[in-house]
């Protein structure tokens, strides 16, 4: 991460409206030098808008953007220390791979020989040696994206902006490219801002993740933290697969737990500060839950809810079991598939859903 | 079952139809050529082959002068109208929905105005403008702009620009339709100024449309009679000479020869552009494939 604690990008109160549509509402973010930063969120959340404003392709309605401490509001894209990799269609179709990658160097007035040296080096780096003479339409989707990356990297920008760079790729290639991108960033040591709506992609590359939804910065933190200990209810619903129980805080006890009345029962969750009577939600990741028969008691450090067993869905590595709570809400529990065993429950069985008290999270917003 | 491609007679029929249409369209041209080779000209009872008329084309002062004016009109119109059309098409692409509607309406309106109304409206307009300019010149004593809007070359060019700009706009806009704006942004991102991005990345991809619209404008300028003859003032263009000859004394033999010459040149030029383009595309594809071949790892 950012050992130096330098700030590469600082965004202050950044807003963008398209007529009545508020695409981004007063977002503040600070991104460290050499950090791999991911903007994650549902479609239409405002990620692209934010990235394009940093790159200089969209004019902010309000707010400031500082790149290495310099306000860049008045600078066009070609004068900013950024370079952008687009989702697709952005290779110059009338130029070869060499023409595409060398374009920026040519603009800098570099000699042919020097361009060739850098071209060879960068194509080696992205694994496209020997493809110099090809036209863009003679490349696969993954190769095209790597050419785009090479075109950006060869200019040695201080900040690389990637807008859904892997969205056009198939699942396997996307996974490979994720790891490759992460290693690449470690090697070149520049700041990456990577936009995606794919949670797994975000988790596998990010130092830090910012969750953006509905034009707002919902939560920002390192990848593990955002996944394991989400602060906001939205984060819990978006990251991984969590069960959410809405209710009100019933009681605040001194031992660091809070009791929440979720309508059908009361459950305890660890929390430092909450006031009785306020609205709250409890989230528990589905892999942190397990099922027991109704007549069996939970452990002392566990919470439990009565439920009716509905069905089991085999997902390969994992199996998902679906239950209905008395109020009709469904709960899903995931566990590593055990192929030998016959299903323990039948549809309609009375069961209990159990989780360690410490696995629950309280969300006040 | 037989597929469409295997039905050889179907394909032959299609080609026969196509050739028949082209032939019918070209009949007047061929007829003109036929007459231009007759010693005795149009409507004579005898036909004797000769190339003499072609020999004397350039001795006909009236015809060569008109030809020169027509060419000059066409070229000056191209120089102004193509950049204007290109600029408007670019503006159109960037505009919001309401501005788009306005631009399209304004640009395409000249297409819907009948030629004679168009011409007379402009004529009246220029006459008024001319009067104003002359009055101002008299009052101020500055003569520089006194004759700007007297009917002449400039008014004819303005008429032609207004007439041809919708075509140029449409042709360029269509070729721009396939262009992705991300490419311009990518170029900007690589450090290109707006102009460099346009010139290096966008222009090569819309070049075909720009060149076609140049050719189209020249053809339209050659064709145009009503607007040009109303606005041109003193000089003669090729079309106006032909028309007045036809109406008054009958076309001269040299005119047939000139007509034949122009058709021949036009057909040759356009034919070779098509052949050249086909051959070039084919060759480029072969070269690219050959270049791509030796790469081992995939
Ligand atoms: N040019 C535009 N004109 C009007 N509204 C726009 C424009 N661009 C984006 N928006 C709106 O702004 C909001 C945010 O869009 P944005 O493209 O930033 O979302 P995103 O997070 O990148 O979504 P996705 O994951 O689908 O790419 C959306 O509601 C979108 O409709
Ligand atoms: Mg987007």
CATH class of the domain at 61-251 in chain B: Mainly Alpha
What's the total number of strands of chain B? 0
Largest pleated sheet of chain A:
6 strands, mixed
Series of H and E elements of chain B:
HHHHHHHHHHH
What value does the average pLDDT of chain B take?
85
Quaternary status of these chains? heterodimer
Mean pLDDT of chain A: 88
Question: In percent terms, what proportion of residues of chain B is strand?
Answer: under 5%
Tell me the β content of chain A: 35-45%
What small ligands are held by the chains?
adenosine-5'-triphosphate, magnesium ion
- What is the CATH architecture annotation of the domain at 61-251 in chain B? Orthogonal Bundle
Shape of chain B: flat
First CA to last CA of chain A: what distance? 29 Å
SSE sequence of chain A, one letter per element: EEEHEEEHHHEHEHEEHHEEEEEEEEEE
User: What is the rounded Rg of chain A?
Assistant: 25 Å
Count the E strands of chain A: 20
Your description of this structure?
The complex is a heterodimer of chains A (365) and B (298). Chain A is α+β, with helices and mostly antiparallel strands. Chain B has a domain of 191 residues: MetI-like fold. In chain B, 78% of the residues lie in helices and 0% in strands. Chain B contains 11 helices and no strands. The two termini of chain B are 39 Å apart. The C terminus of chain B is likely disordered. The chains are: A alpha+beta (365), B mainly alpha (298). Magnesium ion binds next to α1 of chain A.
What characteristics describe this protein?
heterodimer, A: 365 residues, alpha+beta, six-stranded mixed β-sheet, five-stranded antiparallel β-sheet, 8 helices, elongated, B: 298 residues, mainly alpha, 11 helices, flat, binds adenosine-5'-triphosphate, binds magnesium ion
Would you kindly provide a brief summary of this structure?
The complex is a heterodimer of chains A (365) and B (298). By secondary structure, chain A is α+β, with helices and mostly antiparallel strands.
């Amino acid at each position: 991460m950012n050992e130096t604690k330098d700030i590469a990008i600082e965004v202050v109160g950044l807003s963008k409206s398209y007529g009545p549509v508020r695409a981004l509402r007063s977002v503040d973010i600070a991104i460290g030098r050499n950090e791999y930063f991911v903007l994650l969120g549902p479609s239409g959340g405002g990620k692209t808008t934010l990235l394009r404003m940093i790159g200089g392709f969209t004019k902010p309605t309000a707010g400031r953007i500082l790149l290495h401490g310099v306000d860049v509001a008045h600078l066009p894209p070609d004068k900013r220390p950024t370079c952008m990799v687009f989702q697709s269609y952005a290779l110059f179709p009338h130029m070869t791979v060499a023409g595409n990658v060398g374009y920026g160097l040519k603009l800098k007035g570099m000699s042919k020989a020097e361009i060739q040296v850098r071209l060879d080096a960068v194509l080696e780096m992205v694994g496209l040696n020997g493809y110099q003479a090809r036209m863009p339409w003679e490349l696969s989707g993954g190769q095209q994206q790597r050419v785009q990356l090479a075109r950006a990297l060869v200019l040695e920008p201080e900040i690389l902006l990637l807008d859904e760079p892997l969205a056009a790729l198939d699942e396997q290639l996307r996974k490979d490219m994720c790891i490759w991108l992460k290693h690449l960033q470690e090697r070149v040591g520049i700041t990456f801002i990577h936009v995606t709506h794919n949670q797994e992609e975000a988790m596998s590359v990010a130092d830090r993740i910012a969750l953006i939804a509905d034009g707002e910065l919902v939560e920002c933190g390192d990848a593990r933290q955002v996944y394991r200990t989400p602060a906001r209810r939205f984060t819990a619903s978006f990251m991984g697969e969590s069960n959410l129980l809405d209710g009100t805080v019933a009681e605040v006890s001194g031992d660091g737990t809070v009791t929440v009345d979720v309508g059908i029962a009361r459950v305890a969750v660890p929390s430092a500060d909450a006031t009785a009577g306020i609205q709250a939600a409890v989230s528990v990741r589905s892999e942190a839950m397990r099922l027991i028969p109704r007549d069996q008691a939970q452990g002392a450090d566990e919470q439990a809810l009565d439920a009716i067993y509905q069905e089991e869905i085999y997902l390969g590595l994992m199996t998902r079991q679906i239950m209905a709570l008395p109020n009709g809400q469904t709960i899903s529990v995931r566990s590593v598939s055990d192929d030998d065993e016959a299903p323990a429950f039948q549809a309609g069985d009375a069961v209990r859903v159990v989780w360690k008290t410490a696995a629950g999270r309280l969300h006040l917003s | 079952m037989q597929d469409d491609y295997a039905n050889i007679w179907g394909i032959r029929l299609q080609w026969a139809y196509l050739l028949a249409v082209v032939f019918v369209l070209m009949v007047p041209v061929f007829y003109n050529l036929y007459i231009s080779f007759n010693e005795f000209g149009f409507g004579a009872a005898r036909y004797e082959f000769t190339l003499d008329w072609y020999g004397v084309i350039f001795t006909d002062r009236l015809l060569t002068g008109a030809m020169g004016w027509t060419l000059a009109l066409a070229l000056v119109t191209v120089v102004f109208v193509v950049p204007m059309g290109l600029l408007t098409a670019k503006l159109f692409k960037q505009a919001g929905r309401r501005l788009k509607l306005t631009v399209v309406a304004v640009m395409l309106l000249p297409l819907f105005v009948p030629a004679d109304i168009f011409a007379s409206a402009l004529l009246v307009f220029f006459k008024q403008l001319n009067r104003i300019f002359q009055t101002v010149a008299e009052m101020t004593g500055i003569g520089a702009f006194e004759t700007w809007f007297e009917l002449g070359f400039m008014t004819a060019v303005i008429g032609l620009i207004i007439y041809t700009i919708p075509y140029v706009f449409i042709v360029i806009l269509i070729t721009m339709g396939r262009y992705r704006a991300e490419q311009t942004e990518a170029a900007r991102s690589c450090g290109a100024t707006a102009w460099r991005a346009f010139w290096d990345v966008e222009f090569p991809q819309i070049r075909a449309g720009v060149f076609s619209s140049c050719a189209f404008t020249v053809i339209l300028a050659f064709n145009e009679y009503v607007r040009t003859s109303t606005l041109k003032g003193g000089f003669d263009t090729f079309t106006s000479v032909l028309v007045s000859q036809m109406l008054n004394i009958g076309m001269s033999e040299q005119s047939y020869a000139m007509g034949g010459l122009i058709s021949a040149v036009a057909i040759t030029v356009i034919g070779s552009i098509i052949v050249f383009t086909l051959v070039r595309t084919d060759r480029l594809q072969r070269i690219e494939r050959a270049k791509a071949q030796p790469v081992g790892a995939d």
